[in-house]
Amino acid sequence: MSDTLPAAAPPRLRAARTAVAACFFINAVLYADLVPRLPEIKDRLDLTNASLGAALAALPLGALVSALASAALMRRFGSARVASFGLVALAAAVWGAAVAPSWWLLAGALFVAGALDAVVDVAQNAHGLRVQRAYDRSILNGFHGIWSIGAVTGGLIGSAAAGLGVPLGLHLGVVAGVFAVLALVTYRSMLPGPDQDEPAADAVPLGGSGALRAVLPALAALGVLAVCGAFVEDAGSSWSALYLRGEIGTGAATAGLGFVALSVAMTVGRLTGDRVVDRFGQRRVARVGGAVVAAGMGLALAVPSLPTTLVGFGLAGLGVATLVPAVYAAADDLPGLRHGVGLTLVNWLLRIGFLASPPLVGAIADASSLRVGLLLVVAAGLATVVFGRVLRATVSRN
């Protein structure tokens, strides 16, 4: 089936767009619902901080192990089925983590959840890009903005359930059931048929050679951009509070505002980014965004105060908002690769970036200071300016 739908099918296309947005929302809600209740799981299983941390590390480990299988699964079952039914399995895995009676089963459930999350992430982005190609304009940033809203929603639901004393198994069981049903409903509205026309004879699968060598420089550049995006996002989640407390000397009540500033700005940037990308193009927006990241974090580090730090983290979030969606779109369009291969590889590299960023910044901070360690974010912004030239100038193919 061609990605270009006939003029008589806009309702189907709008329904598919809504279905993909729902997938992004569900994907974010499921794990975010568990996060506020991790202290209860720790207490129930009598875990130390180290043992809980080790169990949580199974989540990214599972993602790294499974992510490279995404392309093959999508070719076999289609991105719509992998995304929708993968979310059903993810809901069950998160519920399993909530009710796990031992550390081993908790780690195992989180490993499975991470593995499923990685596959679902690739599949929902792949189907979102298919819908975007049919629209012939940018819509992918909006999906990522919906994911951010879903993460906040899940955290609020989890916090409310914890505050009301709702039993863990009941809370996550109801959440899993409701959103699993919703995921199945979304499948009915996804675009039917194969994700792409039959691949060219020389298209190579994951692990192949030939055309893969030809696109390797572009793929490497996209991988660098993905890692840059990971470094900027991780700066907010892992280091902003420590920077505000240790380097600026703020109190506990305001230490979390750096993360809030980056997250809110990034969400706003994604929800409004499609219009900006359509107006100025992916390449220009990404490169200007990289400059904004470098300038924002440079301001926060050069002038250490609460206002400048919040502005700096906010600018970093705004600058990076459209980067990962643009990288996904470019990877999915790499010539000569079978469907999903480029997207799968870049998604895997993005996860490597999220895994590598905390220890790297931490090691530099221990050797010097956190201000010096966060210069890596400035470097990521500058690298985005340089490597952003590999992105397409426009989303439209007309």
TrEMBL record:
Query: Is Transmembrane given among the entry's keywords?
Result: yes
Origin: domain of life? Bacteria
Write out the GO MF terms.
Answer: transmembrane transporter activity
- From the Swiss-Prot or TrEMBL record, state where the protein is found: Cell membrane
Q: Which residues form the Major facilitator superfamily (MFS) profile domain?
A: 215-398
Residues annotated as transmembrane: 15-32, 52-73, 80-98, 104-123, 144-164, 170-190, 211-232, 252-273, 285-304, 310-331, 343-364, 370-391
Q: How does it sit in the membrane?
A: Multi-pass membrane protein
Q: Name one GO cellular component term.
A: plasma membrane
Q: Which InterPro entries match?
A: MFS, MFS_dom, MFS_trans_sf, MFS_Transporter
> What is the name of this protein?
Fucose permease
